[in-house]
Amino acid sequence: MPVAASAIYFLNLRGDVLINRLYRDDVGGNMVDAFRMHIMQTKELGTCPVRQIGGCSFLYMRISNVYIVIVVSSNANVSCAFKFVVEAVALFKSYFGGTFDEDAIRNNFVLIYELLDEIMDFGYPQNLSPEILKLYITQEGVRSPFSSKPSDKPVPNATLQVTGAVGWRREGLVYKKNEVFLDIVESVNLLMSSKGSVLRCDVTGKILMKCFLSGMPDLKLGLNDKIGLEKEAQLKSRPSKSGKTIELDDVTFHQCVNLTRFNSEKTVSFVPPDGEFELMKYRITEGVNLPFRVLPTIKELGRTRMEINVKVKSVFGAKMFALGVVVKVPVPKQTAKTSFQTTSGKAKYNASIDSLVWKIRKFPGQTEATMSAEVELISTMGEKKLANRPPIQMEFQVPMFTASGLRVRFLKVWEKSGYNTVEWVRYITRAGSYEIRC
Amino acid sequence: MAPTAPSPAKSASPSQPSGKSEVSDLKQQLRQLAGSRAPDADDQRRDVFKRVISCMTAGIDVSAAFGEMVLCSATSDVVLKKMCYLYVGVHARAHPDLALLTINFLQRDCRDQDPTIRGLALRSLCSLRVPNLVEYLVTPLTTGLKDPSAYVRMVAAVGAAKLYHISATTCLDADLPAALKALMLSDPDAQVVANCLHSLLEIWTLEAANSEAAGREIETLYSKPVVFYLLNKIKEFSEWAQCHVLELASKFLPSDNNEIFDIMNLLEDRLQHANGAVVLATIKVFLHLTMSMTDVHQQVYERIKAPLLTLVGAGSPEQSYSVLCHLHLLVMRAPMLFSSDYKSFYCQFSDPSYVKKLKLEMLTAIANESNTYEIVTELCEYAGNVDVPIARESIRAVGKIALQQYDVNAIVDRLLQFLEMDKDYVTAETLVLVKDLLRKYPQWSHDCIAVVGNISSQNIQEPKGKAALIWMLGEYSQDMYDAPYVLENLVDNWDEEQSPEVRLHLLTAVMKCFFKRPPETQKALGATLAAGLADTHQDVHDRALFYYRLLQYDPAVAERVVNPPKQAVSVFADTQSSEIKDRIFDEFNSLSVVYQKPSYMFTDKEHRGTFEYSEDLANLTVGAEAPETVISAQRYQENDNDLLLSTSDKEDNGIRSSNGSYTSTYNAPSDLLSSQTPAETALINPGSSTYSTQTNFSLDDLLGLGVPDAPAPPPPPALALNSKPVLDPATFQKKWGQLALSFSQECSLSPQGAASLMNPQSLIRHMQSNYIQCIASGGQPPNYKFYFYGQKAGAAAFYLVECIVNTASAKAQLKIKAEDGTTAEAFSTLFQSVLSQFGHS
Questions:
Q1: CB pairs under 8 A between A and B
Q2: ipTM exceeding 0.90?
Q3: What residue stretches are annotated with the MHD domain (chain A) (predicted)?
Q4: Nearest C-alpha of chain A: how many angstroms from B664?
Q5: Does A333 touch chain B (CB under 8 A)?
Q6: Distance CA B557, CA A375 (A)
Q7: Is a pLDDT exceeding 70 seen at residue A150?
């Protein structure tokens, strides 16, 4: 049995039940108490997301201030269960509009019960796709008392749609203006040693799409990835154009993408769902362009003073700029006094995270900025110096830049009515975990 | 909607007055609304219903309002209906008579024109779980399965499984499984097919315990037509259903290599699916299908590498955790697999500690000549980590890598640097490691001793570290100038030493030191023995007394006992048997991998909660796997103990190990019973014997064996076997050790038999259908090893068989031991005939 969840609970941080839904009788009633007793109120909390108590396994996840707990009594499929929770939360979010937390649950608990009924039956996951569910579970959900007969069309239609062959798209959509928005969002992860060598660096990217297209359109997306280009050159028997090609380490696609065709022809072709969705995800480890270089120097002057000097260089194109750059430099707990000098942006000491936080709103390409800080420490007895400081962390986003170098070469739309479409493409690179040891 | 009246935060118990008055208030409001035809009545009802549901969620007993809720439920408002159904579903069982009231309107809704309503009503009807209402379920379910709307069929398909759980006979009498099967193979809608599959698997798996027909039904589910039919439709299924179908496919036994390649080609693109669960399920199929083809198996590992690495980094930490658990399992089987991708397992500062811990384990597992330097450098970074448990783990990881013999020289240097970091826990962990290293590489003693000698024992608080230091002081006292004086100091503070472990080590270390440097230690030894004799801890007292008497008897003997010449340890004992590891691998993509235990250890009722027992059982299974090797392993272990735990630990360990075996029998009454009188219990009360047989069965069941199997062909009349013999691994091992060999011969397998032995399970299944049970199996192609047993019908005598099969030569070597020597020959003939039939059926 892949999942066969016996029950699902939503608890707040104190352990109060916000929602509980029992799907099967094979677990006792006091599962929540067991969870509270053995996990929430112990040090074990957060040490492992899968625990066994008695004969039941608890798979739990914390999302903002809510614990979602799945209880199973069989040898369940863990990854399936966690994925289910993640998907369910995404579904709830799309219903409440953005946030998922204790308040949102309290305000929408009837809706959540309704959804829990639909997305899982007897412990088996059913349909979790928001597009489809929204057709027949609406927050209003009222059938007018005067038309108790099936007069309103979408409802019976919806149930047909629940399970159709193209489960992700409804037929008969009409838009006045046919538009497609493509967002290529990359997050770049870096781990750099204190000596300045790159220990680990990769990019995880995703292509987000927003489609407002009529009918049942067929889309084809071309990227500058190596395999795709080679295949294309091979098919058209002409040498591949020079220029940068990208080697994707691994790709995963939304269920709408025809994977057979991807494997044979290396093209991404699909019938898109309506509205917003994640078309594909990819990972790249070779040839990553790091947008920023960070050069820290930290000197300890005696027992009570430190001198911190951080230089940040932007290495992307001079016409581009980064937004929301934040550099967090960890300092010892016993920091008493700090003073700063920065060439741009503002710096301050944040005691709650024991870090100096340096913020630069707009950071042009091919420039550099420095921050020098003096830190005075309270002298303490016996406290030995930390052997390792936590790493410097950095946040940023660079629009119109991809750390991988990935570009969209074309996006073609075919529909039998032959309408014209407008395509919009955006790129953005964000910091994933961008860590520099010092 | 405004937050409802009593904050659910106060999880009030039913007896609390606040809850009670709330409920009676709600009851009253419901009563008023029941007959109301006011235009806004539905809105008001909704509000009240919401309050009822929120009370219910908070744990307040609202069952008192059942009647009123039912009265109000006659409405056309869908949301109201749903809330009411939810309420009824929770409380119906406590009020079966009142639940009857709801049947009427649920049945009516099952005939509604709107398929949503029909589906909803049917689902609620099946969720009532009231046994005496099952008669009302059959008709709606049968019609539901034929409903024109896929939504209703989908609900009905799961409903059948619900009905089975309430009343198995009703479900079977109504012939619902047959209808489900027909629907599964014909319905155009993928979700209906998937739900039929869920239900059928569940029904037949549970039913298999009492009927053989059910076992056959399971076989058909795993048969080629069904599996191929579902796989061909795989793209139509939802991602969750895909997981299920793939799980089914992983248990499929292909008849030839072409089928294997067909399936793999078909599923290749599933590795690109965005859902990690689908990817893992696909990987399971690939790995299991190619078990018998070593080359392809290796290629599969290469192919799955990239998707797995993506999964590690993608998604929530919980998802990474589950993926990392699987990676760890794979890496134990194929350590080379990720050796060049070690950087993917570097810890990020923001990783939660459970992810970090697994990453450390991965780094340890993949270390080899080429990457040790980088990995150890990285691990050393973590040793100063703020997160102390992780810092400890990383030091241990460095030690483990050192014990794997790669680049020991550099690692020892690093370890010695840790000692200079001057942090309590770092020093303590490092000392333990240095001790282990010295036991394996005595040649390093000079370098280590020089550093260790500088450590002041006062700075180490942790018993384990302190004990390690003391061990080294005793062991290398001839090389450490001030060892006797350090020990003397420690003895002076004997009373302040909290940990008995440290005191035990101190006793032994002083003894050792005495034999190496008598004049300097004599005084300390006297003080130690005196302190030890006066100690309140029994073990410490006993050991001191033992040393005292030993010295009195003959110091030369004492020296031989305490300070014998030692050999370096070559291999540290592996904690888990390969049998267990294979079992876990069979259950890839499930909780077993996370717990690192086969599922029977945590799902069977007997094992629940008593972890000690399960661990014991694990050890026993190890034993059962290869009786002779275990015996030699035990001998070996004793040798090891000499070296591993220092001599003085020997007697201690002896006690411990015998203790261990006591507890194993003590904790497990069933075990005790069957080991003492296995035959009698089986004989006297065949009914009760199912208790432990079920353990065996459920084991096999998890492997998809679908026991009991098709009825056996009539065995030769010469010997009839007990159809359900009971023998536990421990007893098997004991008997195997005691009995003399009755027969040892070689026989040949039919070529078909050898061919279908892609997977050892098929043979086990075959033997089982002939009442010969398998207790352990293992091996890699082409060599498999099995341990079987059988029992003469109506008698107590067991037959034990060791069977080594070589699929390449189609030969099997048999060793048969029999408790009843007179029938041994008959059994041997029977066994061989059964074996030779394998592959023909």
A1: 292
A2: no
A3: 177-437
A4: 20
A5: no
A6: 66
A7: no
